[in-house]
Design brief:
single chain; 14 helices; Calcineurin-like phosphoesterase domain-containing protein; Metallo-depent_PP-like; Calcineurin-like_PHP; hydrolase activity
């Protein structure tokens, strides 16, 4: 997740189907970030808890794959949650970490060590928070920029036995995908007539990440750079495609869902609520990558299949849906205050077991936003703010 206005994003926590949004009411006192934060706390509604799956005997489970994203263990509550995971229950299992483990190298290394002690196999892709250039405790690595930090994190993973490359385990193909977002990913209609804070004001990446001059957050160059990192794994991916009938890909950022099999249709942003539903309506500009969608479809095929799954993170919305033949899942731990309101579906269902005994798990339930869009078509052309959003914005 990339929000400075975290309390705003964490309040997108409705427990019932949103009604059609009325016209936003003007207000004279809601234009500053501090006021938005204060008022957002007054209107939060808690979401339903995702139901944990029924317990099965160890013999019935076989090889299991768990998924998790957005650990953010710089928060002591989140680090304690990781420490509370059983040291015995997952000893034969695999964990896919879809990015945003921690902001500091110290907490990243500690978290990965804890998880590797608990799971037989751990796979990881970097998130944006992992690459923030924050101050570190004395004795920990110094990094020139975010790419230098990335290399040090990958070195740490190799030292701990954490995998960042494609691999086949028990006949299941696992493909980590490096990615970054770009603003042009967002092609849906913007919300006009309200004062929306700039990306630089809301997104700490523009300040906490440091990049060489030739790549930038404000163009597709950074997303292209990260996508190119996947090319050195093409031989391994080709082997997986030729030998595995079941494949799980995973990334931190979101793909588009492109309708490659039906190119006459416009691309959709199916894995995030519409802008009118979001406390920060410009969130879609800092969440996804067209390069990632092409990469995913090159692995799973344009039509997908019943054994195709992609896991992602970043937005902190629990998600489970099948789109164009691929199952998309997000299982975020998220921030402590978000868990209290169950924006992420709570914590008793985490980590989520997506695969066991040669089969993919049943669908998450209830899973608020993906449930909503399973019953309601997206309407991005509707730009009238939802009522829980409208109260935070002045008309421009």
């Amino acid at each position: 997740m990339v929000m400075v206005m975290r309390s705003i994003s964490s309040c997108l926590t409705l427990s019932q189907t949103p009604p059609p949004p009325p016209r936003p009411r003007a207000s004279n006192n809601l234009s500053t970030q501090k006021q938005c934060k204060r008022n957002s706390r007054n209107y939060c509604i808690t979401r339903p808890q995702i139901l944990p799956p029924p317990p099965l005997s160890r013999d019935a489970l076989g090889f299991r794959v768990f998924v998790l994203s957005d650990l953010h263990t710089d928060y002591p509550e989140n680090m304690n949650w990781v420490k509370s995971l059983s040291t015995k229950a997952y000893k034969n299992d695999l964990l896919l970490l879809a990015g945003d483990v921690a902001e500091t190298y110290h907490n990243f290394y500690s978290t990965m060590s804890l998880l590797k002690d608990r799971f037989q196999h751990v796979f990881y892709v970097p998130g944006n928070h992992d690459l923030w250039c924050r101050s570190e405790p004395e004795g920990h690595p110094y990094y020139l920029d975010s790419l230098d930090k990335l290399n040090k994190l990958l070195d740490a993973c190799r030292g701990l036995g954490v995998q960042t490359r494609p691999m086949v385990l028990y006949g299941l193909g696992i493909v980590p995908l490096f990615s970054w977002y770009h603003e042009s990913f967002d092609r849906e209609m913007d919300i006009a007539g309200i004062r929306i804070p700039s990306l630089e004001m809301v997104c700490k990446d523009f300040h906490a990440c440091k990049w060489p001059r030739e790549i930038s957050n404000r163009s597709a160059s950074l997303a292209s750079y990260f996508d190119a990192m996947n090319e050195e794994n093409e031989d391994a991916v080709k082997l997986i495609k030729n030998t595995c009938t079941q494949i799980i890909t995973f990334s931190h950022f979101l793909p588009r869902v492109h309708h490659l099999s039906r190119p006459v249709l416009k691309p959709r942003q199916e894995l995030c609520p519409e802008k009118r539903m979001l406390f920060y309506p410009n969130l879609p500009k800092i969440i996804g990558s067209d390069f990632l969608e092409v990469r995913i479809r090159s692995i799973h095929g344009s039509e997908g299949n019943a054994s195709a799954c992609h896991v992602f993170g970043h937005t902190h919305f629990c998600w489970d849906s099948v789109l164009d033949g691929i199952r998309y899942i997000q299982a975020p731990l998220a921030y402590p205050r978000e868990r209290k309101r169950r924006m992420n579906g709570g914590e008793t269902w985490l980590p989520f077991c997506v695969y066991s005994g040669g089969k993919f798990a049943d669908r998450l339930s209830p899973c608020y936003w993906s449930d909503y869009y399973a019953a309601h078509p997206r309407a991005p052309h509707v730009t009238e703010l939802a009522p829980w959003v409208a109260r935070f914005y002045n008309r421009a």
